[in-house]
């Protein structure tokens, strides 16, 4: 096929100027109106509607979670205690509690009402935004308080069941929401004390210090916290040495398993402390 035939078979490019009205139309009637488009105000109203719908769902979830929390409280306070049922109720409450969304910054939107000045429209929008922010803050605070209480109560159940690690985790989750939640601080201190590791005893010591500093003088938990603080330093030192010896023993076993392939063992290597600090490695063949 020749170049001329190829050019005749291809469509010519679109030229919008060919469809513009003649000059006399513009002179007589002006420029044609632009197509209507959605305004930022419409977008804001749509986002507000979505936000209100989300808040309605969150209120229902919070209501259900609160009912489950109350059921867990009844199980925990029953005589005898129904600890498994209480644990199940509190866990279900946590499953129903909505996540706290990140704060949303609401910018004032233009009103579009001609009779109101721009400053007046901005003031109205700002007032509406403050009202919605207050409602959102109240809803989030209610969710936060319920979540904190459920984690704290779940920690109490785990303490009663002597599930010390789970108790520490539950109380720590409550304290992430409210570091001043002293019931959770006390329960975590007790659980860490019972775990008895070097790390957990050190954590218990810090929690007991917090209790001694913040508990009222008439609190029945205050003498317990003071007694624990009196004994913990010695217990921490003993446990630290114990875990250090255990770690060195495991390292020695590992070293012997490797050196044994060459007819050696770790007892053949001695460390001599140097006067200026540090150690010198010395080999002794028995």
TrEMBL record:
Region (Disordered): 1-54
TPR repeats (start-end): 148-181
Transmembrane segments: none
Pfam family, any one: TPR_1
Keyword vocabulary terms for this entry: TPR repeat
Biased composition (Polar residues): 1-10
Protein name: TPR-like protein
Coiled-coil region: none
């Amino acid at each position: 096929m020749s170049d001329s035939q190829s050019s005749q078979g291809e469509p010519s490019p679109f030229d919008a100027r060919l469809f513009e009205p003649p000059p006399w139309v513009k002179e007589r009637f002006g420029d044609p109106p632009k197509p209507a488009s959605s305004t930022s105000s419409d977008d804001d109203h749509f986002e507000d509607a979505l936000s209100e719908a989300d808040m309605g769902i969150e209120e229902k979830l919070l209501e259900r979670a609160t009912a489950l929390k109350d059921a867990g409280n009844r199980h925990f306070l029953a005589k005898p205690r129904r600890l498994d049922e209480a644990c199940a109720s509190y866990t279900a409450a946590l499953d129903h509690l909505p996540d706290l969304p990140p704060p949303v910054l609401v910018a004032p939107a233009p009103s579009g009402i001609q009779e109101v000045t721009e400053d007046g429209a901005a003031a109205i929008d700002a007032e509406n935004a403050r009202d919605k922010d207050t409602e959102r803050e109240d809803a989030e605070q209610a969710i936060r308080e319920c979540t904190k209480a459920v984690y704290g109560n779940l920690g109490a159940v785990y303490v009663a069941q002597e599930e010390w690690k789970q108790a520490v985790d539950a109380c720590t989750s409550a304290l992430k929401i409210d570091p001043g939640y002293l019931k959770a601080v006390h329960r975590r201190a007790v659980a860490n004390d019972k775990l008895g590791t070097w790390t957990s005893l050190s954590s218990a010591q810090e929690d007991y210090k917090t209790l001694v500093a913040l508990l009222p003088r008439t609190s029945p938990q205050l003498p317990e916290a003071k007694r624990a603080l009196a004994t913990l330093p010695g217990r921490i030192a003993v446990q630290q040495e114990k875990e250090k010896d255990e770690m060195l023993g495991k390292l020695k076993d590992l070293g012997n398993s490797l050196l044994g392939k060459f007819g050696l063992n770790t007892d053949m290597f001695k460390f001599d402390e140097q006067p200026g600090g540090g150690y010198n490695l010395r080999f002794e063949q028995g």
